[in-house]
Design a protein that fits this description.
Blueprint (H helix, E strand, L loop, with lengths): L7 H14 L4 H9 L5 H13 L5 H14 L5 H10 L4 H8 L4 H18 L5 H14 L4 H8 L6
Helix pairs in contact: 1-3, 4-5, 4-6, 7-8, 7-9, 8-9
Length: 157
Amino acid sequence: MADQVYTVSQAIEKAKKYCAYQERCQSEVRQKLRAFNITSEEREEVLMNLIQENYLNEERFSQAYARGKFRIKHWGRKKIVMALKQKDISEYCIKKGMVEIDELEYKKVLHELIDKTFDKNRGIQNYQRIAKTAQYVIGRGFESNLVWEQLKTYKND
């Protein structure tokens, strides 16, 4: 099946189904099209068709990606931005995606994540608990200044 050669119309139909299943970016679709054994000109033709018919929209992709990674996986802004850059998303689209993250919800998730992680690190000295909590939450992509600001209240516990 890997040796099957697709026509342009077959590749367009398969790519439409691929994009209809979930939001995709151009780099993901390009990678999928490489497996179709079509020329680079034909791949570009398929991509242009998908963009014209609105199956492929990077602005919409970045918005959905940012919403999903924040709400489901509780990633911070920095991690989401890095992941979008790895997918070759433009700065404009990344900014549009970041608008999807509500500031109040962001701080609420940050606070919950800090509480949960701090409680999990019992049995060690308080300064170590704070350091481990900060390391974990910053690793999740939250801004270090916000994390340390929240952790100031934990120093007296």
